[in-house]
């Protein structure tokens, strides 16, 4: 039964787009292992790990976006070129 659930979970994870799966697969693997070791709760651990991994990936992406925005704001705009003198 657990093999069927695990196979179904892997199919669902494989069917999700890569954009939404950032952090999920890594978290699911770690959560599954921890859940298995903690008392044969691998599927529950994988689900929780997926949610936690996705949350952490969102936080990291938000932080990177804020850093890029602050770098753009910190760089001064180039001064306009002087106009050529007219005779």
Can you put this structure into words, describing what you see?
Helix 2 (24-39) packs antiparallel against helix 3 (42-74). 72% of the residues lie in helices and 0% in strands. The chain has 3 helices and no strands. The radius of gyration is 24 Å and the shape is rod-shaped. It has helices spanning 2-15, 24-39, 42-74. It is mostly helical. The mean pLDDT is 79.
Provide a brief overview of the structure.
Helices cover 72% and strands 0% of the residues. The protein has 3 helices and no strands. The mean pLDDT is 79.
The helix/strand class is mainly alpha
What global shape is seen? rod-shaped
Helix content: over 70%
Please state the CA-atom Rg, rounded to the nearest Å.
Answer: 24 Å
Residue windows where pLDDT falls under 50 for at least 5 positions = none
- Percent strand: under 5%
Q: Helix tally?
A: 3
Average pLDDT score: 79
Number of beta-strand segments? 0
| Terminal Cα span | 90 Å
Main sheet makeup: none
The SSE order reads HHH
Properties at a glance:
87 residues, single chain, rod-shaped
Fold blueprint:
Elements: H1 2-15, H2 24-39, H3 42-74
């Amino acid at each position: 039964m657990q093999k069927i659930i695990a196979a179904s979970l892997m199919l669902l994870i494989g069917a999700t787009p890569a954009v939404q799966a950032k952090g999920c697969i890594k978290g699911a693997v770690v959560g599954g292992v921890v859940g298995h070791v903690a008392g044969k709760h691998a599927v529950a651990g994988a689900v929780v790990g997926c949610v936690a991994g996705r949350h952490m990936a969102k936080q990291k992406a938000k932080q990177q976006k804020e850093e890029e925005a602050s770098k753009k704001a910190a760089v001064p705009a180039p001064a306009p070129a002087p106009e050529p003198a007219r005779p």
